[in-house]
Amino acid sequence: MSQTENGKQEPPEVPSEGTTFSLENILGDNHDAELDASSTVAEGWDEESVDRPNTEGYCVECEDQPAQVGCDDCQDNYCEVCFAAQHRKGTRRKHVSKPLAVHPPRKPPNEQNGDSTEAREEEKTNEGDEDVDMSDESDMELDRVGTGLPTSLVKNALGTQPAVGSKVGDWFVERSKYIPLRLSLGERKYLRLLDAALQVSEYTDKIDTIGFGLSKTKRIVSQIRELCAILSGLVLSADYKLGQSLFTDRDFEKNEHFFQDIFELGRRHKIMNPDKMRTTYGKLIYLLQDSQSPEVKDMLNFTCVKPIKTVYSVLEEHGAAGLLRDDLITYATMEIYSDGRTRREVQKDIKTKERAIEILSARYQCDGLSQEKVRQCLYSIGDNHAFLRTNRDPCDRMIAYLKQFFHPTQVTSPKHSLAIRSGRGGARLSHDHAKQYAYVLQSLTLWREILHDMFRLWSLTEQDLLSEVVPYRLRDTGQGLNRVQAAPKTLRMMHTILQRAQHSVGSWVGSSAIHMGDHNVPNALMFIDKYSQIYRILLPICNTLHHIPTITEKPALRSYVDDEFGSDEGCILEILTDFFRHGFDGSGADNFFDAGSCIDGRLTSAWNWCAQLEKKRYFPVFLLTGFVGFDGEW
Fold first, then answer.
1. Lowest-confidence range among 182-191, 218-227, 352-361, 522-531?
2. 586: left (phi over 0), alpha (psi -120 to 50) or beta
3. Which residue in 546, 536, 562, 555 sits closest to 622, CA to CA?
4. How far is CA 283 from CA 180, 313, 378, in A?
5. Model confidence, pTM
6. Is the dihedral of CA 591, 596, 600, 603 positive or negative?
7. Strand partners, 475
8. d(C-alpha 18, C-alpha 6), whole Å
9. What are phi and psi of 168, to 5 degrees?
10. What does residue 135 show for φ and ψ, rounded to 5 degrees?
11. Share of the chain above pLDDT 90, in %
12. Which has the closest alpha carbon to 437: 407, 464, 468, 398?
């Protein structure tokens, strides 16, 4: 079978205050799944190849919207969204444009149904992935790893998570640089105090407003004073000795490390637990953002911000970074599953993991680094694995569903075609089956890559938000006043992830514009919060599909499913078809100009589908499988 080579897209100013700001004043009277790039690609994939001209009448950039604007300098035609994205910076801003007379363009006959002549003449190769049968590791195998003897497992492939018992190389070293250290019991006590202080604070209500009557600097000082007063009082009530020292010193500089630690553990907890502090983290990060301004720093005489404590920084500080290259770490941080396994096998893995943890904690303890601290580092890496399983794995499962129930280029049944047309069912894009299949696959692949590097993205997000050289401006974005701030580090990382996803899939459909620092995504906080919700969309769908065969074991429910959908598979197919169509159709924006096929618009469309779920005829099936909402427990 001949193979075609894929074309790859390379991809406020505030017045200074003369008064001093001290704790005494405050407390006194006066805060992979990859699409096989070697498989035959039909024309419906919309490959960006030099050998194939662009479809006449469509945008030269996204190729799924009618061309509305012509650029005299570029000699190309664009839709309004892509023209604005491509001509918003540099010399392109001076390009001369002209409106085009929009006529409904017609695609070549061989692209109307997504089945090209080449695709019909050639047979599809089998894309089934071979399952790798990993045999259970015995205690003898653990001893071999601990003593440096060769094991029976192959060496880890570059860039993938090391398998249990394999050579780890530098994978854990690079990964641990962005894995926050799990909070200790004592730190969790102060976390509750911080959360309580932020709950009663009205920081953003008082600062991010217009016409308040006071200068912004005075408002910031007033709110930080209030938060610190509340926090000091809570510390006094929880730990009298420590609280008494705060009241005795009455000096910010002497208590600098205490306040830095309090704010840092709140940020660290949020990164590891995106579901926590959903209403208070925004106040915290905006408060720290304002505290980085030179005027506020001069009044405080210290900074509220310190680097996040990571697994790598703790081990490196005590010269124990060798732990991250020890092959035994794969056993000490492995996840233990119970599905489809006997109790004996699970207990064996638990004992193996506990033994590996004890061996490593005894091997790498040193002055200043106790065995308990080493165990805390290992548990933190295990928390990272759990995060990936909860957030990233639903993307892998949806990709598996896509490949299992749908053909990349051929429509097996008209009822289950993924084709969408602009204006029908709320869709804003026009794709045939093959193009929509590729569009969904690349979107899920991109989400998977983002979630895989979420901890690193969160680190860069905080660096952008707390930057001293990148100011923000308060602006009405159409959804109230928001802090609009550029995020160069986060944006650069997103372009790297996007290029990796494009290389993985082998083609790209739609726009590759990334919104950052505009009215769609005002700042890096809005960006990271948006993409941390992906699993809230995909996990309930995966759980519903997984439990459909279980509920149909009851005769009454079996009769209902058969009458409405024909069979279990018919029910699953209808849910998947509707989601892959209208969860990726460019809808959901407040106006026609926003959303679409850009990087952020794909997620907007998915959220819009979630909002319409109650109107679907298969919604009772979701309820029967235990679904309570996209913001609940599953």
1. 218-227
2. left
3. 546
4. 21, 27, 31
5. 0.74
6. positive
7. 482
8. 64
9. -90, -25
10. -75, 155
11. 40
12. 407
